[in-house]
From TrEMBL:
This protein's encoding gene: BTBD19
Origin superkingdom: Eukaryota
Pfam family, one: BACK
CDD domains: BACK_BTBD19
Domain BTB intervals: 29-98
InterPro entries: BACK (IPR011705), BTB/POZ_dom (IPR000210), BTBD19 (IPR042846), SKP1/BTB/POZ_sf (IPR011333)
This protein's name: BTB/POZ domain-containing protein 19 isoform X2
Annotated SUPFAM superfamilies: POZ domain (SSF54695)
Amino acid sequence: METPGLVVHGEAAPFSTALRSLVNNPLYSDVRFVVGQERQEVFAHRCLLACRCNFFQRLLSSEPGPGVPSPVVLSTVPAEAFLAVLEFLYTNSAKLQRHSVTVSFPLSLMGAVHTLPHTPANVERNVHQYRKKYGYLSQLCLEFVVKALDVELVCEALQVAVTFGLGQLQERCVAFIEAHSQETLRTRGFLELSAPALLPLLRSDKLCVDEAELVLAARSWARVGAAVLERPVAEVAAPVVRELRLALLAPAELSALEEQNRREPLIPVEQIVEAWKCHALRRGDAARGTPCRRRRGTLPREHHRFLDLPFK
């Protein structure tokens, strides 16, 4: 029986430093990427990428032809995020920048989904490979994001979480917004949320904001979306506006909202009618559903005593 040889381990730090020096270094580089909307040129090394990542292995499997090979274009991937992933592939560590980390860990999945045919089988296979290969990196990024969350960053992080199905990050973001609702509603990030990202916020009982302020924020959000998408405000608001709890508004507030809604349609007329029914029936069935349930930040109004639904 052969005696196993002695394994000698060198220091990890100098090895990592040496490999880090090759990140985006044209020296000995044999593959180029053009990344992001700014079309930044990034240099890399095929053998390192291929042995560290299945996605790059497939992407770079073909032999380069004679002459200078054409660059690989990844226009949808931010350059800063791409460089962070390269650094991790080269050194097994990465310096996480506060405002770019939210897009770093879904990067490989983004590239795979944009590059491969959009079939359910391909998407499912790449999600599995992403989780297997980048699980550790994504966990590190998640921990970093959670520690760095603030009012300006949280909506960007929530959007990424919803887009890529990162449930744990979504839960953390929603919890943060619930605790800092008024400040978050005033940020540009809130106005740029997609409808699927806004929905879990409007469905929450724990938002620390009054319904009147939430209606104003939803209107501002819909106006921004309407300007960007060149669609009517009511059409943009349609996927989310049903989550507004209009019955929590006092009759005078509801009348003012109804008048404004005539000038600038936002809320379906039937939804306003339902709110008036809650006022009229008071203890009837119409006052026992989500449209009448108070949130954590709901300010008390005289008619709330008829709702008989304290915040839980």
